[in-house]
Design goal:
Elements lengths: L1 E3 L12 E5 L10 E2 L2 E2 H12 L2 E2 L6 H6 L4 E5 L7 H14 L2 E7 L5 E4 L2 E5 L6 E9 L1 H6 L8 H9 L4 E5 L10 H10 L3
Parallel strand pairs: 1-11, 2-5, 2-6, 7-11
Antiparallel strand pairs: 3-4, 6-10, 7-10, 8-9
Helix pairs in contact: 1-3
C-alpha cells in the first residue's frame, strides 16, 4: 500500500549521498525543461535537499563505508521537489527502511495471454516507481555491488530481503519518457 509522505523541508537533514541516474536512458536526460537539462535539474534538487551528489569516480566500496543513506534520483524525474526528497531521506533514516517514491498508474493496462489481449488490470492495484529511492545505511552497507540504474529492478530485489515503504510523490515528480511528457511536466511546474 502506498502512503502519503510530504511534511516539509528538513534543514537539519543528516549527511546523505545522492546518485543522479542518467545512464541507460538515451539522450532524454539532456533534453531541456525550463531551459535547463533534466539531469541538471535532478542534481540541483538533490543539492537543495541537502544531499551530496556523488562524483562518478567514487567507488561503491567507499560509499558502503560512508555509513550514509544513498538517494537514487532518476534524471527522468527532474522536477521532484527538494523538500520531498529530504522527507524521504528522513523517513529512511528514522525507520531504517527503503523508501520508494511512487505515482498512481493512469494508463489502461491489459493482460496478454497466448498473443491475445485480455482483461483490463485494475489500476488501483498498480503503482509506478519514480524518484527518489532512498537506501538507509544498513541497506547500503549490505549491498556488495552497486545498485545499478534500473530502479524497478532494484526495488524488486531489495523487497526480498529489506523492508520497503512506498510513498506517493507529488505530481511534479512524475517520470518523463518523451518530449511530449517533458512539455506536460514543464506546464505543470511553470510559475
Amino acid at each position: 500500500m502506498t502512503e502519503t509522505l510530504y511534511d516539509g523541508y528538513d534543514h537539519d537533514l543528516p549527511a546523505a549521498l545522492g546518485i543522479v541516474l542518467d545512464e541507460d536512458r538515451g539522450s532524454l536526460p539532456y533534453s531541456l525543461i525550463h531551459g535547463e537539462a533534466l539531469v541538471a535539474c535532478a542534481a540541483w534538487a538533490l543539492g537543495e535537499a541537502g544531499v551530496t551528489p556523488l562524483d562518478s569516480g567514487i567507488t561503491w566500496d567507499a560509499v558502503r563505508r560512508s555509513e550514509e543513506p544513498v538517494v537514487m534520483h532518476d534524471a527522468l524525474c527532474p522536477m521532484t521537489p527538494a523538500d520531498f526528497i529530504a522527507t524521504c531521506v528522513r523517513r529512511a533514516l528514522d525507520d531504517d527502511v527503503v523508501v520508494v517514491a511512487t505515482r498512481p498508474v493512469t494508463d489502461t493496462v491489459k493482460r496478454v495471454a497466448d498473443g491475445m489481449v485480455g482483461e483490463t488490470v485494475d489500476r488501483d492495484a498498480l503503482t509506478s516507481v519514480v524518484s527518489p529511492v532512498v537506501l538507509p545505511p544498513s541497506v547500503v552497507s549490505a549491498m556488495q555491488d552497486e545498485p545499478g540504474t534500473d530502479l524497478v529492478a532494484l526495488v524488486a530485489t531489495l523487497a526480498r530481503s529489506h523492508r520497503v515503504v512506498l510513498v506517493e510523490a507529488p505530481a511534479s515528480a512524475r517520470r518523463v519518457t518523451s518530449a511530449e511528457d517533458i512539455a506536460i511536466l514543464e506546464a505543470l511546474t511553470a510559475g
